[in-house]
Design a protein that fits this description.
Oligomer: heterodimer
Mean pLDDT of chain B: 93
Helix content of chain A: 25-40%
Helix content of chain B: 25-40%
Structural class of chain A: alpha/beta
Largest sheet of chain B: 7 strands, mixed
Largest sheet of chain A: 7 strands, mixed
Strand content of chain B: 15-25%
Number of helices of chain A: 10
Order of helices and strands of chain A: EHEHHEHEHEHEHHEEEEEEEHHE
Radius of gyration of chain B: 19 Å
Low-confidence stretches of chain A: none
Strand content of chain A: 15-25%
Largest interface: A-B, 35 and 32 residues
Order of helices and strands of chain B: EHEHEHEHEHEHEHHEEEEEHHE
Mean pLDDT of chain A: 97
Shape of chain A: globular
Chain lengths: 332, 328
Amino acid sequence: MSRRLRIGLISFAHVHAAGLASTLRAHEAVEFTGIHDEDPARGMAAASEHGAKWHETLDSLLAASEAVVIASTNVDHRRYAEAAAAQGVHVLSEKPLATTVADGRAMIDACRLAPVQLGVAFPVRSSPAVVALKEAIAGGALGQIRAVRATNPGQYPGRWFGDKHLAGGGAVMDHTVHAADAIRWLAGDEFARVQAELGSFIYGLAVEDCGLLTCDLVSGAFASIDCSWSRPQTFPTWGGVTLHVVGEKTTVDVDVFRQALTHYDDTAGHTRLLGWGDDLTARMVGDFARAILAGRDVPINGEDGLRALEVAVAAYRSAETKRPVAIADVRA
Amino acid sequence: MPLGVGVIGAGFAGAMHARSALGLDDVRVVAVAALPLDQAAALAKECGARVATAEEICAAPDVDLVVVATPTHLHAGYAMAAAKAGKHVFCEKPIARTREQAEAMVRACDAAGVTLAVGHVVRYFPEYQRAKQLIDDGTLGRPAMATLVRGNFSVGSAREWYLDPAKSGGVVLDLMLHDLDTVRWWFGEPSRVYARRFTGSAGLEYALATIRYEDRPIVHIEGSWAEHSGFRTGFELRGDRGMLVHDSRAASPLTVQSPAGPASPAMMAAPTLSESPYRRQLRDLFARIRHGERPLVDGHEGLRSLALGLAVIESADSGRVVEWKAPA
């Protein structure tokens, strides 16, 4: 690749920030322009650790960058995206796009007006197994998709992820969007209605740590999503993403992170799964960067992010009302 | 004196129960009925029993207990005829196709003073019993989430009545009912139910149900006749102090392969327990009858699990959350 895209990283609040920094530093399509963080101590330490330039001000980072990755708390996505758009800088936002549908819509509008591109971090689409399933579906191998049972359970991430203001909710806001986006993309379908049962059962949080969504799609297919922070502390990995897809002709199971060595570690006193599959973050960032360098649309855009966010927002409303909720009723 | 057993129905369930009764102490399979009658011949011969009509079985002095293993919509008629003749009844699950049928069976057996037991055999599977024990003794802490899956290839190609919802109740009453009964056994009576299902071509049928308890747990159940590689069960049970995971595919101590490729999918996994759960179920039932005790799953309990299955269907067909109130 002749030219690299100059990309900066905003905030180390998110648990994915360290992985994103490593990717930005190493990726052949990227020139890593440095880090800004609303918490200077955290940001300076991260810059030092990742061999990146520290930017005291957001403007300094934006001035040095053609694009930024936002790895802040969820509630801050909007203000950072709007600031980047105002400086003509493209945006790749961590998921969920925002904590409210209105904020997500505002981000899309700001980027369109600028105009800059707005991408959303859904690395599940970068899994070769998921891509293979997408191609099988497109080729008709499954027949009509009738049902999907999806899970994205994980360990409780801690930090601010249990803070309703900063995160926008709990497990539903954190994990629903990955599965919802994968289902939309794979099935070429849209969500129409959501029913959800939520509970705060495990960690004593003010937000839900357990959630189960049952969704109707526009085509008439249905899907369930288990988004719970249900993996115990002794679980051998952070969690996982699975899809059980029932087609009229064929049934397919996807376990995105199944490629792993089991490490029975006497030194550490625990058993861990060591993934050896593709680096999905690197593939996702590379696809984003190459699209912008080539002047193409980014593969996962703000509208995709908003569609997935709507499912999470509808789940909260369903749990409040104890009724299924139409997506149209939460749409901005 | 040995307990005499008459079996009505010589299909999958009838053969399973008859073979399970063979070899139990003080039990004799004396007669087998089927429609048409000649379909009972092979099983009767295997059991050293006579071929008889259902009416003859109910009237026979050497029959103490009647196994009802007919298509689901016919359970009630045979069970009530047996009760009226003073026979104990062991009925394959679901207890009946409709709530009214099940209630009539319970009334008839109570009035006749005979035992009515329902074959919710999962309560005799060691992996499900062990989970129950770890819930009850507090090892898992308070249950938070449970997911139970159960799938098979479509059985309709072998037995047409399964595909007629008026006869079998489809995948919800035939297959998912096992797990609906299991969650009632594990956690008690839930608060509300939400479900979706579809029926496809070639006997394909699939359902997802969410069963919510007033406080906790949240339970998700998959019932599938789209599991083309064959029978599978699994559960994941998360309490606030730990998690249990079961996957039948990872739990077989015996795997067979040959140059001819994998064997055609069997209805059930190969027996790898010294005593099958089906035989344990009958052994326990016969012991309880001898001691004048109630069966582990009586007619009232079978009725409640059927009613939960009917609530799942009601929710799936109406698109509404169904509030659950267990029948008495």
